[in-house]
Fold each of these.
Amino acid sequence: AEARSAGASIGLVPTMGALHEGHGSLIRAACAENDYVVVSNFVNPTQFGPNEDLDAYPRDLAGDCRLAREIGAQAVFAPAVEEMYPSGTSATWVEVEGRLTSILCARSRPGHFRGVTTVVAKLFNIVGPCRAYFGQKDGQQAQVAARMVRDLFMPVEIRIMPIVREADGLALSSRNAYLNPEERTAALILSTALKGAEELMANGERNRGRIISFIVEEIEKEPLGSLDYAEIYSFPDLEELPETIEGSIFIAVALKFGRARLIDNLVVNL
Ligand code: AMP
């Protein structure tokens, strides 16, 4: 509040902690564009399903504070569950309805996006940011947050930053910590399948079904992973596309490896 009333611009980077260079890139962007940067660190129970990895989710608050400080953030906000949900749960929910929260990750994670938008709305009200930073890594989530802000006239600019990858192409994720060495090698299939699809399109392929079949076949070559989805929509609205695709398109994949569920995506302009 002091920073705000002194006229400082406030940037918020919402995270679930176990920070890596993907989060680092968001914090860096926030520091470049704002006077005062808050990194929130909260493993939000309401966005996890009953059989998901809430308890196992990696946590490292001390390391997170070190990284946030090194990059230049002014504050880490790491509330307890009881602070964010004082009565045990929330009687008020913020929910983006419709296709944006019915496709892709919503199918295998019912209620997930309602948990995300509710906690992000709470964080916006607590921190009062001018800008909030999301990663394209969770491309659907970023669009859901943008839609919430648009629909509710929240005075926050949503900034979406590119996916940060390991040298071999695997998108950084706190959940990569779940992978054993064999699964880590196998997880490369997500980014290589997307790269292969990109090459197909660079060579002129425009048929949606054929591009999806290519990705599915590539992923099924990897026996350690089981495919959750491989889908193509328009970008950024995530609308259905006709069989022949053009314009800005979003290709998203999700794959399960043991207890880890990994996602990746690609935006291409055709
Ligand atoms: P999480 O802590 O996984 O909930 O992520 C917090 C924010 O960091 C989300 O907006 C993510 O999209 C973003 N993020 C996570 N991994 C990456 C990555 N590899 N590249 C860019 N942004 C990321």
Amino acid sequence: MDRYAVVGNPISHSKSPLIHGMFAEQTGQRLAYERLEAPLDGFAETTRDFLQDGLGVNVTVPFKEQAWALVDERSAAAERAGAVNTIARRADGTLYGDNTDGKGLVRDISVNAGLALAGLRILLVGAGGAARGVIQPLLAAQPAQLCVVNRTVSKAEELATLFGDQGPISAAGMEWIEEPVDLIINATSASLGGKLPGINPSLIRPGHTWCYDMMYASEPTAFNRWAAEQGAAHCIDGLGMLVEQAAEAFLLWRGVRPDTAPVLKALR
Ligand code: ATR
């Protein structure tokens, strides 16, 4: 049977085996998908071992940058993102790396939530790996402006410089922006600890601004609870992004894109 896995540390809570299992059943593909915990200092070895026989892996925290370094060739999205979340082993044994996180985010917002990104003023909060991975696909959707804000402003400025040739991107400190925007995307890890990233509440125009937290949990995240209190028009968590990035990985491996709606519904 064709074998795939998700590699991370920790990995026991990953929903990826469940998601890919549902994709396989729906599309009639025969495959096995497992969780693989790599030691913190043993990502490359664990992944190479698995890919002797396995056909592909998804990569999650904290190994996406190491996966970028491991592969032989990368998609344009992965190249810029500096991170790889999907590896496919080719027939000749070489490893191809893609980053489907940004495609997954854009698809979740534009298709699942039905918000067209073209012409919008978007605020991206955070400048770590998660933010970096989604900038190119966001700019490709042709917003009027993508402003990156971060607690450490120099990291936001670095990203604005790095992606400056891709579209209208700017950088600022968390507290500097006060004008309302159309869409706010939280790409900080603050939600992990139940904390708020500290942006100005005046960024949310009640009844107008959409808010998206790339994190998800069984309860609304701290950021989405805060956004709802400020009157955000819609508050969305990252579960749809998770399912959509998985669908893009499945497409790369199997050549068929599963229907994500029933899978997302089952997970909810
Ligand atoms: P990831 O891969 O999840 O992006 P990361 O690269 O460590 O993880 O980046 C974490 C991001 O969350 C950074 O933008 C970080 O801000 P700094 O660059 O200033 O460290 C942001 N972050 C984490 N905790 C935060 C908090 N409590 N308030 C605001 N920003 C926070």
